[in-house]
Amino acid sequence: MKAAPLHERIRREIEARILSGTWAPGARVPGEIELMAQYGCARMTVNKALSALAHAGLVDRRRRAGTFVARPRSQSMVLEITDLAREVVARGQSYGWQMQTRRETQSELPEMPGPVLEVDGVHLADGTPLAFEHRLISTAQVPEVLTADLAATAPGTWLLGHVPWTEAENRISASAASPALARVLGIAAGDPCLTVTRRTWRGGAPVTLVHQHFIASRHELVARFGAA
Amino acid sequence: MKAAPLHERIRREIEARILSGTWAPGARVPGEIELMAQYGCARMTVNKALSALAHAGLVDRRRRAGTFVARPRSQSMVLEITDLAREVVARGQSYGWQMQTRRETQSELPEMPGPVLEVDGVHLADGTPLAFEHRLISTAQVPEVLTADLAATAPGTWLLGHVPWTEAENRISASAASPALARVLGIAAGDPCLTVTRRTWRGGAPVTLVHQHFIASRHELVARFGAA
DNA sequence: ATGGCGAATATGTATAGACAATTAAAGAGG
DNA sequence: CCTCTTTAATTGTCTATACATATTCGCCAT
Q1: Quick one: which of A119, B56, B92, B161 has the fewest CB in 10 Å?
Q2: What dotted CATH number matches B6-69?
């Protein structure tokens, strides 16, 4: 067995009763004093357990009123957007990156104004195209990127190892491949593509804006949440 | 101003220094004793701040070694999969649900065996089709669903208000509409669709399995993370 | 009934101290 | 130079206590 800390044990036992439905949404959870007596420990210990549950959104806590099982609201899930290179390798395929264009320019886009490095390229899995990527990187925010060898390392991979982000936004959509996109990916025009548009900021300032167009038949995004 | 608790203030100040790049990934964060002296508070207080940062993945803590700024790994984002009805209404459109078939049956699917309620239907936004949904709900896990009026309330909405989940998985992909799907959605066969397949479990037992096919031009998924 | 007001109560925050667990680093021995 | 052992630094957990803060409840006056 494992010697789980007490606050962890308390947390898990309460969690189990909530998830099993023993304590229905809206039901009252025993107060800190009560649990403290029940487990024979200090209030700080049960407080830590209950605070963790509140942070996870499993319970609502209100002063004077008490602690209650939260009613499920939205399925907020963790979507792990890992590095594409890592993801491909994890699937047992070989990863490749083919940079096509790279130029420094001045962006006029309202969502990312100023000097940018613009990079286009194709991600390959086992030598065949997987996705086309068009990316802008703010050189004002990330001047070091100008010295990076983005022909050897995909920009996403490079950024992941060098720049932390504070805010990010992903938009996921589907579209039919344009003739130009189809040519680059080696598919037929009109074939469905999964498009991911990702913007990241650091402290309010835009860092990068990327469009990735995946060949629909070769890629899907998987988001998981919960116990392993 | 706000009267932020001390541990919150400490957390935010450290967080700011990490995100601004003042403290680079791998750099050492002052130890608890040092911060304790710096802020003139008890160790539990700085511990709470640092623990929160560790929980959020911003720092790594190792006994004897110290606390270090974590190097960014994967962009793990929170993808809010809200209820479709709510989402449509939030966009200022009217929401509608049109159930098409409903039958109790025995599922042979390995990922969801046993007795299930099978529901097909179309989600409407402003009266026009937005997505087709095919759903299985385990009646062993959720017997109450048999008495729910799923013609009036979309099954997703009903489930969200009645059943908590412990584990869930989303798969997001793109595909071309089959003739049958195109007919139901009122689009042309071959038009791109965004497909979301969601499975949820409660304590290891499957609760529901749903396929949602969105008309690509009318819907995209948005995932956000970070400060408002 | 109704609306305001005070008091009881549950949570939130913080302190000071103690011991346990982990493990990097220094030192001892070969 | 390498390996094993010891040491010590640092985080992890827990206690017992105290006061702060928000909010519900009931009392009281209207």
Answers
A1: B92
A2: 1.10.10.10
